[in-house]
Write a structure and sequence with these properties.
By secondary structure, the chain is an alpha/beta fold. The protein is built from ten helices and twelve strands. Helix 3 packs across helix 4 and helix 7 packs across helix 8. It is globular. The termini are far apart.
Amino acid sequence: MEVPSLKMNNGRDMPAIGLGTYLGFDQNGVVTSKNKQLRDVVMRAIDVGYRHFDTASVYETEQEIGEAVKMKVEEGVVKREDIFITTKLWNTQHRRTEVAQAINDSLKKLGLDYIDLYLMHWPIGLNADYSHSDVDFMETWRGLEDAQRMGIVKGIGLSNFNKQQLERVLKEGTIKPDAIQIEVHLQNVQKEMVEFCQSEGVVVMGYSPFGSLVARHGSTVEGPKMDDPVLSSIAQKYGKTTPQIVLRWQIERKVVPIPKTVNPKRLEENINIFDFTLTPDEVEKINGFDTHTRYTLPSFWQNHPYYPFDKVDNPIADPFIKV
């Protein structure tokens, strides 16, 4: 499958769909790959046409992604420059002097000499013990700018920032963000945010693209499901599945979806969305599911001065702090 691309502020191209590699979180912390499962999924993904892989230092998947890319380059299937790697700075390394070291750690795990896109994972700085740090995210951003000037990253951006925080980076930074990764799906359309980012040339990457179509944290959630009549009728019209329609809706909005799967059939299905287009009316119908619902809501950080979302009455316990 030939995947189109979107132009970033730095003049480079980002493939219009990426494979997410976050394996989740359980009572033991971040879920990690067993028996090189993720490496094998990434190798298969390259074979079926994926060229964009999304990871982060906290996901602990960088090493297996790097192994897969190396093996496919050695096989002659792709060149390094064909592959687009996005990874992210974790909250405990927000000081300007720590950023380059964090990137070098990621490069070592990936086995690469540069990263295509490096994002600040959250605007929230934390100390090593996960207490709140007083580091301003603009200090962190200057560390990312340093790294781009050094050439160890080709592009820099943000993740989980709100509109006001992004505006501040645009105003006070010396390099414009190339991309921002935010939660975008049927129930969190983020129309205003998406349009603002695109007006500034900032490519929007959408995580959790399936929203309520899939189980969340092991249980079903409210919202449209696979058999929703509106989505099903559009899917039937194009001979596609409901998840393919939802991914194509993102493509029509020029949002780069980051679907996750380790299922070979789903892997192929998710990328097979570039042989049809939705009408503007169909896009608007899908926009109508919006309820401003977030599934990624780390309310345990909500008293941090740079917490990007609305506070809730009963914040959940911090999973990063072992009691």
